[in-house]
């Protein structure tokens, strides 16, 4: 019988790359995303569920759509949203949205599925960000909520290990996705200066398949060199 995985943010970027990797590993994947209709990747065992994690009240409805909920053995938190600006220019709505997507909803979703993950001796993977560990100009709120989910993952590791539930925190550096579409910076053209979603999915795959007898609770993934460029805006 195939194992069941839940992946947030599964319609694009890192979440989609992880979902496709899990499908090749013979998982049934339930992907939670805002706009499943925009995803062109269609597979027999890939079930996209429409859900807005900026509204934690939607989580019970999302859970009801997981028709094989009792078989879930893997939960991957990859959904994200980012707004970078001086603190006085961030609207209350954008601040709340980042807190809900990166902190509140992952905590509620994890809490809702923990009993099942304990029963199945499952695994939880959090996709963090280097912004949660380092100073990020104009990334005050985004870096803070990422730091929060990093700490949550670390505390959860110690709480759940006694129940044979493995918790991993994957912290990527600059990754070439549409994350930068609305920012004033973007990855440099040098391919050594950024990561690709498939590379993060590769790391997740190895964490899941590892049978060494020990657990890697946290791993930082960085490009070979550091380069970033500012976008040129037309006047």
Describe the protein in words:
By secondary structure, this protein is an alpha/beta fold. The chain has 5 helices and 9 strands, in the order E-H-E-E-H-E-H-E-H-E-E-H-E-E. The protein has a single domain (4-230), classed as Rossmann fold (3-Layer(aba) Sandwich), CATH 3.40.50.720. Helices cover 34% and strands 19% of the residues. Strands 3-2-1-4-5-6-8 form a 7-stranded parallel β-sheet, with helices on both faces. The longest helix has 28 residues, at 92-119. The chain is globular and about 50 Å long. The N and C termini lie far apart (58 Å). Belongs to the short-chain dehydrogenases/reductases (SDR) family. This is Short chain dehydrogenase.
Please summarize what this structure is.
The protein is of the alpha/beta class and 235 residues long. The protein contains five helices and nine strands.
Classified by CATH, the class is Alpha Beta
Catalogue the unreliable spans: none
CA gyration radius, whole angstroms: 17 Å
The count of DSSP E runs of length 2 or more, i.e. the number of strands, is: 9
Instruction: State the strand order across the main sheet.
Output: 3-2-1-4-5-6-8
- Within CATH, the superfamily carries the name NAD(P)-binding Rossmann-like Domain
Share of β-strand residues:
15-25%
Structural class, from secondary structure content? alpha/beta
Protein name: Short chain dehydrogenase
Family: Belongs to the short-chain dehydrogenases/reductases (SDR) family.
Pfam family, one: adh_short
InterPro entries: NAD(P)-bd_dom_sf (IPR036291), SDR (IPR050259), SDR_fam (IPR002347)
């Amino acid at each position: 019988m195939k194992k069941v995985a839940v992946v947030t943010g599964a319609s694009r970027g890192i979440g989609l790359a992880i979902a496709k990797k899990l499908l090749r590993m013979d998982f049934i994947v339930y992907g939670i995303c805002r706009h499943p209709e925009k995803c062109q990747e269609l597979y027999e065992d890939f079930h996209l569920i429409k859900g807005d994690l900026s509204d934690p009240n939607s989580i019970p409805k999302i859970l009801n759509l997981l028709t094989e909920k009792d078989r879930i053995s893997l939960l991957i938190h990859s959904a994200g949203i980012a707004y970078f600006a001086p603190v006085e220019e961030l609207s209350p709505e954008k601040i709340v949205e980042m807190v809900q997507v990166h902190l509140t909803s992952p905590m509620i979703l994890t809490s809702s599925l923990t009993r099942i993950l304990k029963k199945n001796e499952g695994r939880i993977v959090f996709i963090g960000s280097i912004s949660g560990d380092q100073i990020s100009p104009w990334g005050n709120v985004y870096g803070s909520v990422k730091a929060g989910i990093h700490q949550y993952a670390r505390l959860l590791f110690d709480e759940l290990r006694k129940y044979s539930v493995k918790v991993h925190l994957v912290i990527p550096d600059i990754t070439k996705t549409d994350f930068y579409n609305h920012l004033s910076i973007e990855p440099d053209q040098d391919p050594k200066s950024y990561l690709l979603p498939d590379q993060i999915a590769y790391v997740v795959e190895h964490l899941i398949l590892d049978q060494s007898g020990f657990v890697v609770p946290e791993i930082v993934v960085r490009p070979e060199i550091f380069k970033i460029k500012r976008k040129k805006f037309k006047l």
